[in-house]
Design the sequence.
C-alpha cells in the first residue's frame, strides 16, 4: 500500500518535471512576450548623402568637357578644390580664390560657348549663365540674391601639351541650389551682445554656411575665432582677443572618446584671463552644439599650455541663450478681452485668468505681450488706441495707458507689443500719417521714439529677439508687407535718454509678398506666415539671413491671423486661426485648444 | 646508412639497361635528377628524412600500440571520424542550399528594385529633355544643358528610397562623352572600388542591365561588406550615356547565413559527441566482458583452474560467460580426474612393489636353501634351482628399480648435494666395471682427469648414473674401447661415455630413456637389465638440475653425456663437451658412404633436456628435434674465454670446422669397423638393444 503510494508520488513528480521541462523548452522556442527592461541606444541615422567625386581632366578633353568638369569639381567634397584647380592654367590656379564667395544659382550654371568657330585658334570663350538665388560671402554669411548670373570663362590651349585649360575664371564658387543644400550647412556662431546689460551675458547667434563634408568642426572654429559677420559686428563682442587664430600645427579638430575637444590657439590668446577664456570656451560649446553633439567639454590651449576647460553644463553659467529660457505659460486673450493663460507644453485646454488687472477684464484687450520674466504684461485695448502695462500680481490696479495712438482706424493704431530681454517694451504705431516705433524702457511711461532711418513704410508688427540685438519687423509699403530683420543700436543720449536706432534692415523673406504673422522660433530662426506672389498663404521657417533652414516646415494651416513660437524648440507652435487657438505639438497635426485670440509666449 | 644507399644504387641503374641509348644529354640530367629523387623518396635514402621520420614516429608509437591493442579506441575513433565526415558533408550541403535560397530571394528583389530605378532615371531624363528641349537646344543647335546638378539630384532621389537597403552610384561611360562628369555615390560608398571593372566593361558594351557580386567599400571607417551590384547604361537629358548602379549590401543575408552556420556547427558538434559517446558506451558493454574473459582465460592457462567469470543478466554476454565458466569447470573436473587416476596408478605400483617384497623375501630364502642344496638334486632339478635363483635376483632388482621410480614419481626423492670430485666417482665406477670389461675384452679409458672436476652433487646418485652408463657402454661396446671423458667449463661439469658399438638408430636416442623400452618390443625380456636403468638415471640428472643426453649413429657407436651445474640451483646454459663426438662418422665425412643411413641423414642426436619439459614435446617431432637440439651442440670449450656465456650457433657452423678437423682423425679404423659391424649388426643390435637397460 505504502509502496504503491510512493510510486504514485514519484510518477506524479516525474510528470511535473517533464511538464515544466516542456514548458521551459516551449518558452525557448517562441518569441518572448515579456522580459527585462533595457535602454535603447540611439544610433544617429545616416543620411543618404550623395557625394560627387571630382575627376581630373582627361587627356585631350574638349573645351566643353573642361568647363563641365570644372563646374562639376566645384560641387565635390574636394578640400581646397585641388581637383578643380587642375582644370585651370597654372596662373589662373594661383589667382583663383574659391573661398571668396559662393554663388548659388537656381538650376546650376549653364555654359554657353561664344564664337565656336574660334576653337582652332587655341582660345575660346564661354559664358556661365543662370539665375541667382543667393550668395555666400567671404565671411560665409548668406544673403538672398536675385538677378541673372553672367560670368565669362576663357580657355586657352597650352602650346606645349595641346591641352585646353581655363585661364580666366570668375572668383569664388558657383553651383546649383540643390548642390548647395547638399554641400553646405548652416551653423550658428555665437557672440555676446555688446551692451553688457545682463549677467551672464546674452549670446547672439550669427548664422554662417560651411561645407558640411570638409571638416566642418575645424572650419566653424576658425570662422568663430575670425569674428562675427559684418552685419552683426557693431552690436556684438567676442571673447577671443584680437589676432587670435588656431595654432598653425592644429590637426583637424575631433573630440576624443570622452567628448572632449581640444582647441589649440596661438600665443595671442594666452593673454586672456580665466573669465575671458571661459567665454571663449562657452562660445565654442554653443557653436559646436548642433554641429558635433559629441562634444561635451572644450579645452582651450594657448601657446602650448592649457588655458582653461569648460564642460557643457558650465557653459550655461558663463553665458545664456534665449532658447534656454523655457516659458511657463502661454498667454492669450479670451472672448471677453481678458488676459488668460494655460500651462505651456501640456495638453491643457482650460485657460485660467492671469493674475493682475489685465486678467480681471477691466479693459477689453486686443493683443497682449508678457515680459520674459512673466512678471509684467502689456495689453493693447480692443480699439488699439491705448497701451496698458500692469504687473502680473493679483490685486494690482490698472494704471493709465502708457501710450496712446491717434490712428484713424483700428487697423492704423498700435500693433502687438513685444518685450526684450532687458524689460524694454517695443510697440509700433501704425498711424498712416505718422508711423512710429516706440520703446518703453523698463516698462516706464516715457516712450522713446526709435529711429528707423533706413525703414521705408509702416511697421505692422514688431518682435524683438531674446538677445535684444535683433528685431524682426513687418513693414508695409504699398501692397507689400515684407519681413525685415534689423539691428538695434543703442546709445546713451545727452539728456540721459537713450537714442535707439534700428539699423541695416534686411529682408529675410524676399520671395514673400504678404507677411501676415511672424514670431521668433529659435536663436536665428523665425516662423513666418505669408503669401508668395501669386501663391497661397503658407507657414514656414526662415533663417534671419534669408535662407531656408533644413527642417521640415510646419503642417499647413489656413486662415492664420497670429502665430507664436518660443525660442525654446520644445514648446509647441501656437497659432490663432479660424478655428481659434490651435497648437502644433512635435510630430503631430494641429490641435484645437480653445477659443480666443492673440496667443503669445512671453517675449 | 651509406651501405643502404650503396646497396640500392645499382637497382635503378640496373632496372633500365635498355634505355641509355635513347637518353639525350638533357634527358639524362633529368633522369639523374629523377633517379636521385626516386632514390631519396622511395628508399628513404636521405638520412635526414629517415631521422625525421623516426623522430616523428617515436612519440606516435605508444599511440599506435594502443590503437592496435584497444578495440574500444578503434571503434570510437572510427565512429567519430565517420560522423564528423557526415556532419561536414551535411553542413556543406545545407549551407549551400540556404545560401542559394537567400541569394535567389535577394537577387530577385534587388533586380526588380533596380529595374524600377533605371526606369525612373530614364523617365526623369526624358522629362527634363522635353522641358529644356524647347528653348535649350534651339539657341546654338547643341544641347549644353548642365547635368551636374541634375545627376546629383537624381542620385539623391533614387537613393532616398532605400536608406541602408541599397546605395546608388553613377559612373561615367567609357568614352566620357558630353561633360566630364565625375562619379557620384550615396551612403559613403567608394564608387570606383565597389564596382568591379569587368561589370563596367560589360555595361559599356551594351544597353542591357548586368549584375555582379562585389565587395562594397566605404570611405568612412565602416567595414566593407559583400554586396550585389546591378548596373545599366542610361542616358542623361542631353542624350549622353552614363552608368547607373544599384548596390545592395548582403549584410542581412550574411547574418542569416552565419546564424545557420553557427546553428549547424553547434548541432553537428553535439551529434558527433553524441555518436562518439554512444559508440563508447556500446563498445564498453561488449568489450568489458571480453576483456574479463581474456584475463580469466590467461589465469586458467596459468593453472588457476578455480577462476570463473562474473555473470550478470541473461543477455548474449551472460551466455558467453556461462559457457566459459562451464568449460572451465569441465576442464577442471577432467584434469582432477586424470590426476587422481595417475596418483592412484603410482600408488598402486608402489604398493604392489612393497607388497611383493615380503613374499619375495620368503621365496628368496627358500630359493637360497634350494640353491644351496642343488648338489643333491638331479641335474635337471639343479638347473631349475639355478634358474630360480637367477630370476629371483632379477625380480629383486626389478622391484628395487620400481620402488626407486615410484619414489621419483611421488616426488619423494631428495637430493643430498655436497661438493665432490667427479674423477673419484668415475674411477670408482670404472674399477667396479673392470671385471665385466675383462670378460668382454674391453678397455675403459678415462680422459680429462688431469684436473679436479668438482661439482655440488649427490655422490650416490651420480655414481649410479655413471655406473649405468659405463656398464651399458661396455655391454654394447662389442669389445671395443670405452672412453669416459670429463670436462668442466663455465658453470657446468660434464661426463661423457663413448662407445664404438652398434650405435643407435635414428629416433632411438630419445627413446632409450623411456621406461621398459626395448628395440624389439615383440621379444620377451629374458636377459639383461630391468629396462628402468636409464629412466632412473634421467630422473637423477633431473634432480640435480642437469641434463642427460644420448647420441648415436648406426654402426658408429653412441655417446651418453651427463651435464651437471657446478653449483646446485644454477641454471645450465651449455655443456663443456659436445654431444656429438668429434670422431663420429658424420664428422669424419663418411655420411654418404653408407646407403644404409635410412633418412640419408646419419644424425641421430637426441637431447632430452632434463630442465626443459618443452623439449619432450619437440623430441617427438624429428624436425623440431633438430632445431631444439641446436643449443646443446654448442661447445663452450671451443669458445675463447671462459665459456661462461654460451652462444648458440646453428649446427651447420659447428659442423663445418669439425668436419675439416675430422679429416685428420683415425677414420679408417672406424670406417672398417663400421662396415664390418654392419653385416652382423642386426643380431648384435638385437642383443644390444635387449640388454641396453641393464646397469
Sequence:
Amino acid at each position: 500500500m505504502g509502496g504503491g503510494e510512493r510510486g504514485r508520488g514519484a510518477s506524479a513528480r516525474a510528470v511535473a518535471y517533464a511538464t515544466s521541462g516542456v514548458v521551459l523548452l516551449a518558452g525557448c522556442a517562441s518569441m518572448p512576450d515579456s522580459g527585462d527592461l533595457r535602454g535603447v541606444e540611439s544610433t544617429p541615422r545616416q543620411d543618404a548623402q550623395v557625394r560627387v567625386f571630382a575627376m581630373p581632366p582627361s587627356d585631350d578633353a574638349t573645351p566643353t568637357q573642361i568647363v563641365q568638369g570644372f563646374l562639376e569639381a566645384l560641387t565635390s567634397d574636394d578640400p581646397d578644390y585641388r581637383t578643380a584647380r587642375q582644370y585651370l592654367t597654372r596662373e589662373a590656379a594661383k589667382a583663383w580664390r574659391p573661398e571668396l564667395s559662393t554663388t548659388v544659382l537656381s538650376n546650376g550654371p549653364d555654359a554657353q560657348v561664344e564664337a565656336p568657330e574660334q576653337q582652332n585658334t587655341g582660345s575660346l570663350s564661354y559664358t556661365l549663365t543662370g539665375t541667382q538665388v543667393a550668395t555666400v560671402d567671404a565671411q560665409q554669411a548668406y544673403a538672398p540674391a536675385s538677378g541673372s548670373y553672367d560670368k565669362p570663362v576663357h580657355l586657352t590651349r597650352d602650346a606645349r601639351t595641346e591641352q585646353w585649360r581655363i585661364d580666366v575664371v570668375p572668383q569664388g564658387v558657383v553651383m546649383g541650389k540643390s548642390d548647395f543644400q547638399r554641400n553646405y550647412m548652416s551653423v550658428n556662431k555665437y557672440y555676446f551682445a555688446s551692451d553688457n546689460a545682463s549677467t551672464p551675458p546674452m549670446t547672439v547667434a550669427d548664422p554662417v554656411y560651411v561645407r558640411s563634408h570638409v571638416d566642418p568642426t575645424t572650419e566653424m572654429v576658425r570662422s568663430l575665432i575670425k569674428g562675427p559677420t559684418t552685419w552683426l559686428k557693431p552690436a556684438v563682442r567676442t571673447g577671443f582677443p584680437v589676432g587670435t587664430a588656431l595654432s598653425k600645427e592644429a590637426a583637424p579638430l575631433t573630440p576624443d572618446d570622452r567628448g572632449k575637444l581640444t582647441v589649440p590657439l596661438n600665443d595671442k590668446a594666452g593673454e586672456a584671463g580665466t573669465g575671458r577664456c571661459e567665454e571663449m570656451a562657452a562660445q565654442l560649446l554653443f557653436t559646436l552644439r548642433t554641429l558635433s553633439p559629441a562634444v561635451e567639454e572644450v579645452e582651450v590651449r594657448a601657446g602650448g599650455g592649457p588655458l582653461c576647460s569648460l564642460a557643457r553644463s558650465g557653459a550655461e553659467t558663463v553665458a545664456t541663450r534665449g532658447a534656454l529660457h523655457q516659458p511657463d505659460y502661454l498667454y492669450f486673450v479670451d472672448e471677453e478681452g481678458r488676459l488668460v493663460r494655460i500651462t505651456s507644453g501640456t495638453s491643457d485646454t482650460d485657460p485660467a485668468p492671469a493674475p493682475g488687472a489685465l486678467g480681471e477684464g477691466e479693459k477689453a484687450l486686443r493683443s497682449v505681450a508678457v515680459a520674459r520674466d512673466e512678471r509684467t504684461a502689456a495689453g493693447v485695448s480692443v480699439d488699439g488706441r491705448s497701451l496698458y502695462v500692469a504687473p502680473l500680481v493679483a490685486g494690482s490696479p490698472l494704471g493709465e495707458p502708457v501710450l496712446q495712438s491717434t490712428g484713424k482706424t483700428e487697423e492704423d493704431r498700435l500693433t502687438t507689443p513685444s518685450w526684450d530681454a532687458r524689460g524694454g517694451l517695443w510697440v509700433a504705431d501704425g498711424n498712416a500719417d505718422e508711423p512710429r516705433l516706440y520703446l518703453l524702457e523698463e516698462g516706464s511711461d516715457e516712450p522713446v521714439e526709435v529711429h528707423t532711418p533706413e525703414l521705408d513704410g509702416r511697421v505692422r508688427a514688431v518682435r524683438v529677439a531674446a538677445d535684444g540685438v535683433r528685431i524682426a519687423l513687418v513693414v508695409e509699403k504699398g501692397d507689400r508687407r515684407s519681413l525685415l530683420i534689423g539691428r538695434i543700436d543703442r546709445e546713451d543720449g545727452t539728456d540721459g535718454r537713450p537714442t535707439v536706432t534700428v539699423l541695416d534692415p534686411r529682408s529675410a523673406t524676399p520671395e514673400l509678398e504678404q507677411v501676415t504673422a511672424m514670431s521668433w522660433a529659435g536663436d536665428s530662426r523665425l516662423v513666418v506666415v505669408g503669401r508668395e506672389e501669386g501663391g497661397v498663404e503658407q507657414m514656414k521657417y526662415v533663417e534671419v539671413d534669408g535662407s531656408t533652414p533644413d527642417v521640415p516646415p510646419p503642417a499647413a494651416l489656413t486662415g492664420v491671423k497670429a502665430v507664436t513660437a518660443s525660442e525654446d524648440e520644445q514648446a509647441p507652435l501656437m497659432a490663432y486661426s479660424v478655428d481659434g487657438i490651435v497648437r502644433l505639438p512635435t510630430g503631430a497635426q494641429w490641435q484645437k485648444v480653445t477659443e480666443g485670440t492673440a496667443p503669445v509666449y512671453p517675449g | 646508412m651509406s651501405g643502404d644507399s650503396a646497396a640500392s644504387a645499382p637497382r635503378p641503374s640496373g632496372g633500365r639497361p635498355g634505355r641509355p641509348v635513347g637518353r639525350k644529354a638533357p634527358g639524362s640530367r633529368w633522369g639523374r635528377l629523377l633517379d636521385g629523387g626516386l632514390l631519396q623518396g622511395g628508399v628513404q635514402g636521405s638520412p635526414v628524412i629517415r631521422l625525421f621520420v623516426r623522430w616523428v614516429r617515436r612519440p606516435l608509437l605508444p599511440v599506435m600500440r594502443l590503437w592496435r591493442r584497444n578495440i574500444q579506441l578503434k571503434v570510437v575513433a572510427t565512429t567519430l571520424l565517420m560522423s564528423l565526415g557526415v556532419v561536414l558533408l551535411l553542413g556543406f550541403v545545407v549551407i549551400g542550399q540556404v545560401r542559394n535560397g537567400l541569394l535567389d530571394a535577394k537577387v530577385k528583389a534587388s533586380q526588380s528594385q533596380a529595374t524600377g530605378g533605371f526606369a525612373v532615371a530614364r523617365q526623369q531624363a526624358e522629362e527634363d529633355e522635353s522641358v529644356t528641349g524647347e528653348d535649350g537646344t534651339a539657341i546654338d543647335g547643341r544641347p549644353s544643358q548642365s547635368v551636374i546638378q541634375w545627376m546629383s539630384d537624381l542620385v539623391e532621389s533614387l537613393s532616398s528610397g532605400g536608406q541602408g537597403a541599397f546605395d546608388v552610384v553613377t559612373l561615367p561611360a567609357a568614352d566620357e562623352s558630353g561633360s566630364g562628369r565625375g562619379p557620384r555615390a550615396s551612403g559613403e560608398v567608394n564608387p570606383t572600388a565597389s564596382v568591379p571593372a569587368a561589370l563596367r566593361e560589360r555595361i559599356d558594351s551594351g544597353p542591357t542591365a548586368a549584375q555582379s557580386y562585389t565587395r562594397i567599400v566605404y570611405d568612412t571607417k565602416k567595414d566593407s561588406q559583400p554586396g550585389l551590384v546591378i548596373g545599366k547604361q542610361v542616358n542623361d537629358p542631353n542624350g549622353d550615356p552614363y552608368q547607373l548602379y544599384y548596390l545592395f549590401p548582403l549584410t542581412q543575408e550574411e547574418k542569416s547565413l552565419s546564424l545557420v552556420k553557427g546553428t549547424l556547427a553547434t548541432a553537428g558538434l553535439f551529434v558527433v559527441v553524441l555518436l562518439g559517446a554512444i559508440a563508447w558506451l556500446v563498445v564498453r558493454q561488449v568489450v568489458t566482458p571480453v576483456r574479463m574473459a581474456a584475463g580469466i582465460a590467461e589465469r586458467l592457462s596459468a593453472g588457476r583452474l578455480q577462476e570463473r567469470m562474473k555473470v550478470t543478466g541473461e543477455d548474449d554476454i551472460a551466455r558467453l560467460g556461462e559457457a566459459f565458466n562451464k568449460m572451465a569447470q569441465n576442464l577442471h573436473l577432467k584434469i582432477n580426474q586424470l590426476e587422481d587416476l595417475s596418483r592412484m596408478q603410482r600408488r598402486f605400483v608402489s604398493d604392489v612393489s612393497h607388497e611383493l617384497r615380503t613374499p619375495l623375501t620368503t621365496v628368496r630364502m627358500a630359493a637360497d636353501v634350494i640353491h644351496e642344496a642343488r648338489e643333491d638334486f638331479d641335474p635337471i632339478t639343479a638347473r631349475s634351482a639355478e634358474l630360480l635363483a637367477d630370476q629371483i635376483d632379477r625380480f629383486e632388482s626389478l622391484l628395487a628399480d620400481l620402488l626407486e621410480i615410484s619414489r621419483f614419481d611421488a616426488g619423494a626423492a631428495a637430493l643430498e648435494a655436497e661438493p665432490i670430485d667427479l674423477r673419484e666417482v668415475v674411477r670408482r665406477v670404472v674399477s667396479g666395471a673392470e671385471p665385466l670389461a675383462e670378460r668382454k675384452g674391453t678397455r675403459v679409458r678415462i680422459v680429462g682427469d688431469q684436473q679436479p672436476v668438482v661439482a655440488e652433487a649427490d655422490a650416490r646418485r651420480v655414481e649410479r648414473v655413471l655406473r649405468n652408463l659405463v656398464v651399458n657402454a661396455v655391454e654394447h661396446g662389442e669389445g671395443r674401447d670405452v672412453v669416459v671423458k670429463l670436462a668442466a667449463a663455465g658453470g657446468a661439469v660434464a661426463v661423457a661415455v663413448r662407445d664404438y658399438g652398434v650405435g643407435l638408430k635414428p629416433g632411438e636416442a630419445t627413446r632409450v630413456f623411456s621406461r621398459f623400452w626395448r628395440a624389439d618390443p615383440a621379444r620377451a625380456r629374458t636377459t639383461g637389465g630391468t629396462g628402468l636403468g636409464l629412466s632412473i638415471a634421467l630422473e637423477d640428472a633431473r634432480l640435480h638440475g642437469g641434463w642427460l643426453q644420448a647420441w648415436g649413429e648406426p654402426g658408429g657407436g653412441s655417446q651418453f653425456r651427463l651435464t651437471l651445474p657446478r653449483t646446485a640451483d644454477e641454471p645450465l646454459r651449455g655443456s663443456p663437451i659436445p654431444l656429438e663426438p668429434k670422431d663420429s662418422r658424420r664428422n669424419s665425412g663418411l655420411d654418404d658412404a653408407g646407403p644404409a643411413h635410412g633418412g640419408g641423414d646419419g644424425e641421430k642426436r637426441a637431447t632430452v633436456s632434463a630442465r626443459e619439459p618443452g623439449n619432450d614435446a619437440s623430441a617427438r617431432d624429428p624436425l623440431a628435434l633438430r632445431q631444439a637440439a641446436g643449443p646443446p651442440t654448442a661447445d663452450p670449450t671451443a669458445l675463447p674465454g671462459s665459456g661462461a656465456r654460451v652462444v648458440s650457433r646453428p649446427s651447420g657452423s659447428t659442423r663445418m670446422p669439425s668436419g675439416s678437423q675430422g679429416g685428420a682423425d683415425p677414420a679408417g679404423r672406424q670406417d672398417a669397423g663400421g662396415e664390418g659391424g654392419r653385416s652382423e649388426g642386426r643380431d648384435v643390435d638385437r642383443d644390444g638393444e635387449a640388454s641396453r637397460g641393464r646397469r
Q: What stands out?
A: Chain B touches chain A through 33 residues (CB under 8 Å). The longest strand of chain B covers residues 225-235.
